[in-house]
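Running this now, will post back.
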Amino acid sequence: MIIRPHLHWFRMLLAWRGSVLPRLLPRLFLIFCISIVAVAAHDHLLPISLNLNSTAPFSLIGIALAVFLGFRNNASYDRWWEARKLWGQLLNDSRSLTRQALTLPVRQVPKEDIREFIAALSALPHALRHQLRKTDPRDDLAARLPQTLLERVMSSRHRPATLMLFLGEWVQRRAQAGELDPMAVVAIDRNLGALSDVIGGCERIASTPLPFAYSVMIHRTVYFFCASLPFGLVDSIGILTPVFAVFVAYTFMAHEAIASQIEEPFGTDDNDLALDMMSLFIEDAMRDLLGEPGLELPKPRDTGYILT
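Update: finished.
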């Protein structure tokens, strides 16, 4: 994710990092070449043109593109924003569970046992992040979990769920020891259930992309429209056809590229969620409640920076 201050209007025109323009340059160059062919064919070979003012195909295609690109962008942004809300809930529930573990026991719980609970809870965002990105969590989990629990978690297929099971077992042990009364157990279990909802919501987003048929149809329509547009413009604007054709192509292709990028919010593209930073921030929030030193978090810079 790109984090930067609000840019001056002129600097915004020249912004490169975080835009989809770098990945579109080869496609826009192709449209530019097609436009040159259209101009050359119109002026020197055959009077090939599609008069936009008198034919309906471009108008119909434009309407279809507006409808389906709007749907695609709205659906993709809904997925991105829902994912962000789920990670916000993960922060809130983690803080609540930390507070409850510190304040609800009716008898003094050994500090080592409290740290055991907080360690598993702080490892949960990292385990979830790695599961969503399909990466190896061993290094992050080894820095936070005792060896026995680490091996148990690494041997499981669904590591966040295994950590949730351990947290539930911790509550059970405290209740059997008389350190948590039934009302406290119910309160903690409610927040554990909310954490399970977060994990399930993230797994649902990660495992259920938008229907492939929508992506294929929009992709084909955008590229057909952009490739044929120069032949419709050349009769009316002549030598300026490449400029306007590339600009229109950038508009449509950029919308499709942005929707495709944020459709999978847990990735590592420039506009995906900064899960590394969020995981550290959640852990830092729990360390703060414990009265421990804070973690080293990225500092803002005037020029902006990327969070992964």
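Residues 57-103 form the longest helix (47 residues). More later if anyone needs it.
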